[in-house]
Amino acid sequence: MNCRLRLPIAMNLASDLSLLILCAALPAAAAGDRVRLITLDPGHFHASLVQKSMYPQVSPEVRVYAPAGADLQEHLKRIESFNTRADQPTHWQEQVYTGPDFLRRMLKDKAGNVVVLAGNNARKTDYINRAVGAGFNVLADKPMAITPAQFDQLRRAFRRAAAQKVLLYDIMTERYEITSMLQRELARMPELFGVLQHGAPEQPAVVIESVHYFFKEVAGKPLIRPAWFYDVRQQGEAIPDVGTHLVDAVQWICFPDQVLDWRRDIQVYHGRRWATRLTPEQFKRSTGQDRYPDYFKKDLGPDGALEVYANGEVGYALRGVHARITALWGFQAPAGAGDTHYALLRGTRCHLRIQQGPEQNYQPALYVENPIGVSAAQFEAAVRAAVAKLDAQWPGVGLKPAGASWEITIPAQYRVSHEQHFAQVTEKFLGCLAAGRLPDWEVPNMLAKYYTTTQAYRLSHARK
Q1: Of 52, 183, 289, 375, which residue is most buried, by most CB within 10 angstroms?
Q2: Which residue has the higher pLDDT, 70 or 19?
């Protein structure tokens, strides 16, 4: 049976998604469409953010293979909201299959050439392996592995992807944050930054910390999270989950475009984890569910609060450079605030610091600091010369004093939201797909990243 199930019809059927929506092979894409997306088991809102924009080389018809249930319904609602918004609406046409054999059916149908994955992380590594083994390209939300055993699976997946000549790529949105990009460029100017210090475990050369919140708005609406999101066995603990972005930032900023070897270049020597407590009322507000699923029984405290091991820290050395990464989660940000990011790089001539707190109105700001006591006039001259170089690529970037430091002023057009970063990552992936390859450093550095995060998991669980 052929069907072309457009999204509004899918939403009308959402109450009975246990019925199979049988679709034969995807109809031929329109002329010029070279990429056909498949969304597999979308359980995280990041799956929909890939489709917040349209792409000229991507067919508007998207196949979705997933189990029936709330996760799928929420995904389809978000796509529908993008299609019906007043400003630059999208025109995605979702074709949905919800049979219990959805994974096998996806592999059999071969109805597209790029599988988008963002969902339950306990299943994701297996999905990746199966998809690349069947000849699909994969664009996966982080993390692609949350345990040491999954890291071993991921290594096999990259070998399979190479054998099948397909691309496997994870979504690293922090690379598209303007303060991170400028920090990276300034760190490559030895006349300003010098060279990156090596630091020590007690005073790392690189310190990055992120704070996230469980309850937030996405695309202008309160985010309803699936209950399993709070089960770290399914979502992942702090460092293997959001810590992936931070470890990636260390590699991307400190060793730009360089191939890293996870076997030789990394020594992980510290890892710890601790819980954020979630009351029953907060759990209901976030998930819409009145009770905890049974798999949470061993995670409940005597007062009924759920202990979510969503906070973590890892200390490690990368090619002798010591780094400390911390990832934290609270329930809800203070009024006017949101997720925050802190990143400090210690160079031999200056320090580069990103701060995102009340003083910055919770918008990330980049500072150049003078830790070695050169004269204020000499330091100012060096900073101004560096900013003049930035202006060639980012016209309008400027400078203003911030005490003994200098703040890099950033025009509004370079301030792109986290949700918009997903389109930027997708466009980068599509460019690599057209070229038929990733940069030489991407695959080894993905392995280095997931080795670091999963070793942090191992050490944090070994603590007494």
Answers
A1: 183
A2: 70
